[in-house]
Amino acid sequence: MKLVIYETETWIDLTPISYIRPVFELKCGMYTLIERIINTIKIKDTGLYVRDYLCDLVRSRYPYPVNDPSFLQDDLLIIDGRCLVDSDFSFTPEREAAWFFDNELAYAFIKKENVLKHSENGFKSILDFAVGLPRIETKTKIMHFPWNFVLENSEMLKKDFISKGKKGIEGKFSNQAVIHGENDVFIAEGADVHPLAVLDTNSGPVFIDKDVKIFPFARIEGPCYIGEGTQIMPGASIREGNTIGPFCRVGGELEESVIQGYSNKYHDGFVGHAYIGEFVNLGALTTNSDLKNDYSTVSVYVNGKPVDTGSLKVGSIIGDHTKTSIGTLFNTGTSVGVMCNITAGGILPKFFPSFVWYVNNKFMKGFGLGEMIKTAKAAMGRRGKTLSQEEENVIRKVFEITAEIRKTYVTKSFRAK
């Protein structure tokens, strides 16, 4: 039996955080979705199917076949890369069936003879066949929108801490630091918790990965995962439900948020119920609202159109390589695209197309894609990373994909009096 992890055209509903990565690289709890799938299902022979412009990038990151028709030559378990797989996942390989969540195909088991019959017409033909198989409802959730990752994060952190099976202190923990609550803490080798830091486990566990530094007067409330090489600044208030890192710098107040990695929220300011991509830099006092004054449900722009989240608390969704100035104040449920540069001023809009500058309350083109890529290379270099040619090619493709909506916003902005 072989495993195929795939994405469909629904990736667009997870923008802006899915523009420059496959959907299965998004993170909830301690793991990305692909890590969850592979760690739980444990089928060694794995293949990936992604949108065309990501093929070379995904091939450079994984040892698996990508969009390879020759891989489709056996019994298949196919699973949507948006699935939030945990220990509750189950399937029966004895008979062909399709498992659905919210009336949408989550995964399916297909026998070899039917795989071969339909693979000649491409993987889409296999998907179409799977939808018609005997139907079973599953509790394995599909992450339809970016805020789903935030809303599920606390519960997944608790489950992941149990599945890790690790407790105790392997790194440094000052005798003047405090664990308040149950001893549901793991501090990995190389981590350093400074004096007067507080780890509060009354609401959930705290997992501190290797080479993390927790500076004095920081308070970290569980459930929380702090990824490798991350630094929590002096006086930071890391409230419940956060996944941070790897290699982030976080200060101020953070609540129920996911920071994909390599991003900075170094200074004071509140960020809550947010999903922040990689190599994002939030200037001092950057703050988002995550609750409306009338306590009604929050709407978020998805691919340029508002969608009601059905939730009272949703913060910002911020794409990779975006930067904000000091004092930037985001409205409730703001969506910010890839490689934006946003300066403070007045009441900010709730949607920023990718690759825009927002200056003096106007959308602008900025200095062009070349300068944006140059800035990205500089930011990555500060974390010891380089922008690969595959990554640059993807960024350039996303620039093309988002050109029309960006042009619309820039044009309207300069026509406005």
UniProtKB/TrEMBL annotation:
E.C. designation(s): 2.3.1.157
Any Pfam family: NTP_transf_4
Keyword Transferase: yes
Keyword Transferase annotated: yes
Keywords per UniProt: Acyltransferase, Transferase
Provenance organism: candidate division TA06 bacterium ADurb.Bin131
Superkingdom per UniProt: Bacteria
InterPro entries referenced in this protein's UniProt entry, alphabetically: Bifunctiontional_GlmU_bac-type (IPR023917), GlmU-like (IPR050065), Trimer_LpxA-like_sf (IPR011004)
Gene that encodes the chain: glmU_3
Lineage: Bacteria, Bacteria division TA06
GO MF, one annotated term: nucleotidyltransferase activity
Stated name of the protein: Bifunctional protein GlmU
